[in-house]
Write a structure and sequence with these properties.
The protein is an alpha+beta fold and 73 residues long. It has one domain. A five-stranded antiparallel sheet has the order 2-3-4-1-5, covered by helices on one side. A hairpin with a 2-residue loop joins strand 2 and strand 3. The N and C termini lie close together (6 Å).
């Protein structure tokens, strides 16, 4: 599972990742608690967090967003 912690544009990130596959890793939105969004990834590894972070950074709004992505076992 990965956690994306961000104060703004959470819906944008949810639409960007939920039910999508990037570099062979499928993401599914699980829940949101305050500023944290929880996603399940088909690959349970640090790589899933790295790919999600890269996808967000390369998106249209990515360079302007403040966020953290972490892998949780």
């Amino acid at each position: 599972m990965i956690i994306i912690n961000m104060p703004l544009k959470r819906e944008y990130i949810r639409e960007l990742l939920d039910q999508k596959t990037y570099e062979g890793i499928a993401y599914r939105f699980v829940k949101q608690e305050s500023m944290k969004m929880y996603f399940e990834a088909s690959e349970e590894s640090e790589r899933a967090a790295s790919v999600a972070k890269a996808v967000i950074k390369k998106s249209e709004l990515g360079p302007a967003l403040f966020f953290m992505v972490e892998y949780v076992r």
